[in-house]
Amino acid sequence: MFILNVVAAQVIAKEANVNQVIAEAKPTDKLLKVEEEQAKGHIIGMVGDGTNDAPALAKSDIGLAMNSGTAAAKEAANMVDLDSDPSKILRVVKLGKQLLITRGAITTFSIANDVAKYFAILPAIIITNNPHLQLLNIMQLHNPQTAILSTLIFNAIIIPALIPLSLKGVKFKPEPPQKTFLKNMFIYGVGGLILPFIAIKAIDILLSVFMR
What we know:
The protein is mostly helical. The chain has helices at residues 6-15, 27-39, 54-59, 71-76, 88-126, 144-168, 177-210, and strands at residues 45-48, 62-66, 79-81. The protein is 63% helix and 6% strand.
């Protein structure tokens, strides 16, 4: 079993631009380090190929074993890199972030979209029996029938339109999480509120023309 000494580990870490390194670590040292970081609330990914890596691989949130590694390591890990290329962990992290961002963006859009749709439908239905609520009917849809039908048509259009986005994913950029969150909230949150109002109103106008 090959274990880097402290000097060699520090030299390699410097070349790889790694800020923190632990050399000559035993299996228990690796396991304790994973548990220590998890106790801080961190999501831990572990890459290993040896039997001594198995405990830490099993304990980590995401364990990636090399295909050229031992059976114990591959059994303990969540994933096995068939190419045995440790640098792939960067691609795994990037893909995971992209999936998380995409799920958040679509969820944000869906919630905002539903809020806007109900705000469009309910006033058009309620004001028939409650004229005092006319102020809520800001979209001024023609009648409850066209309001409901317009919303159904909009749903039939927008749901398939989201499929390419869910398959392709939201573009990931290495930037502070707060910036990504605010940007996606503005694009998919505000966009999810505004789009239904514009689209449903346009469909309602078309329906009122055809239903005359």
